[in-house]
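ARCHIVE CARD
Drawer: 12
Card no.: 0347
Subject: one protein chain, sequence and derived structure
Cross-reference: see card 0346
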Amino acid sequence: MTDIVALGELIADLTSCGLNEDGFPVLSAHPGGAPANFLAAAAAVGCSAAMIGKVGDDVFGHLLTRQLRDRGVDTAGVIADPSVFTTLAFVTMDSEGGRTFSFARKPGADTCLRPEELDRERIRSCRLFHFGTLSLTDEPSASALREAVSEARGGGALISTDPNYRPALWADEKSARIAMEWAIRKADIVKISDDELSFLWGVSPEEGARKILGRFGCSLVFVTLGAKGCYAASPEASVRLPVPSGLTAVDTTGAGDIFWGTAVSRLLKLEGSPHRLEREALEEVVRYANAAAAISVTRPGGMGSVPTREEILAVI
């Protein structure tokens, strides 16, 4: 049985690292995609992990699949399709490491995954199934994701989601809100940012967590607060912990994904059900994941900035 299976985008992040003599950005390529970063982080701290998705049968597609496999993630469910190109994300950053995204995705390979291409047996037999919402922006990937969630639920897996709002990929804000709320409603555990809560409902982290636990029926909510750390809540307890001090951010790409992959790995290692965590266990999970995210932002890229278990423990 695989611990974690994730479905979604495996993409190349092309990050600006200066300008050439003509004033055009010089780009540095890094492996990325939120579910892929998430799996790489979980695998780095000891979980078995598998990716389901689609890339182009091209240079970036092969590089990305190899990078993920080299990080211990099973890529048998990643399809290389010669009819489409691997999706590219162009990332520009401000002086504090904050990011702005634009995408070459019209269509990108990740949106072209079809329901009949799913590795259904792998999905049904995993302990936890994870997804974001970017697969819901287009067909046929939206239908493939909905069927995958149904398969995972039927197999008894925990369901995890990260809404991961990217405005440039949605036709309009209403469509994005509908899809993000659908994802939250289907999940047992949710990772969401304070900015995404503001976009959805205009609420604080505490109010948003209460709403997700109550109205949406989820069991655990983690609200990432950027440089301020994380607020997490279960029906039994809540905690707010800062990020470790003394680390300087250079690139925040993938930090939320790495936080969540690390957090989920800790949840799966706890004794008993993660559905009703008490304060001590919740603090342990958040402290561990905060350390992983804090280390990751000191390095460029998403997947390539995943820390080792030893690095995390040293920071803690």
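Annotation on reverse: The chain has one domain: 4-8+33-82+112-315. DSSP finds ten helices and 13 strands in the chain.
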